[in-house]
TrEMBL record:
The species this protein was found in: Clostridium oryzae
InterPro entries reported for this sequence: NAD(P)-bd_dom_sf, SDR_fam
Organismal lineage: Bacteria, Bacillati, Bacillota, Clostridia, Eubacteriales
Gene Ontology MF annotations: 2-dehydro-3-deoxy-D-gluconate 5-dehydrogenase activity
Name of the featured protein: 2-dehydro-3-deoxy-D-gluconate 5-dehydrogenase
Pfam families (UniProt xref): adh_short (PF00106)
One GO location term (cellular component): membrane
């Protein structure tokens, strides 16, 4: 008998894939969502054989709003309840805001904000009715300040942080916990896809997944992994916001040069 059913977006690689492995190892049935359905099918075969669990693969593009509703309706029609929701899927783009294609900016906000909002709203309603459930939203250290060259991504993660904190307070009386994980750089394909270099301080996806998983199980709300990052966020409170934004932008520019 499994522990429940977990829905994970962006499950085909990076942090999402590592979280998928942890939930599988712990005996959860899974619903895996990503655009790379070939990779998801491979993951399904490997994990079902290894851990004797049931995995549902959904090939969905979360930049399309109807996709989120389709996911919910399909599971509802199959009488499948989601016990844990992991909003991991995310997009970013490095460059000057005014030079970035509008279609790319809209895709970022569609996945990072709209899809997360829709999925959270639909599934947390059912969790609240059952008075049981957990939600893990993946934000970023960038949620705490704006930054030049990656403005839309950081802004979208600020939304994730704010929303998660608010609904965590709302849902606690309904037996539902909300955890928002705010890591620094992680060694995944995200940076390459966003067009920027990898920070020397980046941690492995396995390490990040382990920290996020532990935080979710512990019912923590806002999680900033690492003493260094916590000190940086705390220290930034005593600086003018324009200075914090300037320094963040300088760091992004350095990482861009490292890529080149």
């Amino acid at each position: 008998m499994t522990k429940g059913r977990v829905l994970i977006t962006g499950a085909s690689s990076g942090l999402g894939l590592e979280l998928t492995k942890l939930f599988a190892k712990d005996g959860y049935d899974l619903i895996l969502v990503a655009r790379n359905v070939v990779k998801l099918e491979q993951v399904k075969i490997e994990l079902e054989l290894a851990y004797k669990i049931d995995i549902i693969v959904l090939d969905k593009d979360l930049s399309l709003k109807n996709s989120c509703i389709e996911i919910y309706d399909e599971l509802k029609n199959r009488n499948i309840a989601v016990d844990i929701l992991v909003n991991n899927a995310g997009l970013g783009s490095f460059g000057l805001f005014h030079e970035t294609e509008l279609s790319k900016l809209l895709e970022i906000t569609a996945v990072n904000i709209d899809a997360l909002t829709i999925l959270t709203r639909l599934f947390c309603r059912d969790m609240a009715k059952r008075k049981s459930g957990k939600i893990l939203n993946i934000a970023s250290i960038g949620a705490f300040q704006g930054s030049a060259f990656i403005a839309a991504y950081y802004a979208s993660k600020a939304y994730v942080l704010s929303l998660s904190e608010a609904i965590a307070n709302e849902l606690k009386d309904y037996g539902v916990s909300v955890t928002v994980f705010c890591p620094g750089p992680i060694k995944t394909n995200f940076h390459k896809a966003a067009g920027k270099g990898m920070s020397n301080t980046a941690i492995s996806a396995e390490k990040a997944a382990s920290l996020a998983y532990s935080a979710l199980r512990g019912g923590k709300t806002v999680v900033i992994p690492g003493a260094g990052l916590k000190m940086m966020i705390f220290g930034a409170r005593f600086l003018p916001r324009r200075v914090v934004v300037y320094l963040a932008g300088k760091l992004q520019k350095i990482q861009k040069q490292q890529k080149g």
